[in-house]
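BUG: 3D viewer hangs when loading the predicted structure for this chain

Environment: internal workstation, default settings.
Expected: structure renders.
Actual: progress bar stalls at 90%.

Input used:
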Amino acid sequence: LAHNDHKAEAHCYAQNPEHPDNDKGYRKILQEDVKLFRDINRLSDYDAARQIQADGVEVLVDLMGYTHGARDGVLAHRPAPIQVAFKGYMSTTGSSSVTHLISDAPSVPPEVTPFYSEKQVYLKPCFVAHTHPISHVEGRMLTGEPPTKEDRNISGVPEKGFVYACFNSLYKVSPSVFDAWMEILRAVPTSVLWMLEEPKEATDNLCRQAERRDVNCSRLIFTPKVDLWKHIMAKSSADLFLDTPLYNAHSTAADALWATV
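Structure tokens produced before the viewer hung:
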């Protein structure tokens, strides 16, 4: 957490319980790197807001937006005079509780800012940079070389043929996008579409919809969630990453870049 200790104090508020398998040591790093670290997981929104206000926070940065585990109720109590959204949710909250959004021009083009309730704070060239656990000891570095037959066998996709992949959550797939994807599969007979099995209930629906569009369900490959570094390694077996334009990829797109797709 980069900051100037002479000009600002950094406080961190953990709103999710400690999870040794998922935290990967980052929680401990934050605890050691900031002036104050508080776990507010068990506090109500009101009590958490009172604590943040009592700590004298002047700029409160929310990393969640409307995602799983979010505590937007804390923001609604306005514990800080300036409340900023950053990184985790790049759409508007539509809320007067969030005053600013840290973004960039590609993510939030100037022409769409009137539709945002937040004032944009543009960073150049982009609003966020990514490191990745693929560089950790449990994984090997990716080379950018084409996937081998062995790589594809491990990933569960065909050895031959073109592999289109979209690992966004399936609720982001609109009928018009799926229509376009099925048209592509019909035009490229040896190709397959590789997707995340999330939520699992959607896979049967997509298979039925593919059959209605004259695409055999066997050409839809679904993969369950696995450890993140294994997911990155598997994703490198894809040839082309497909995004969902109405609700774009976020971390998933960064994963695809790290996987050299």
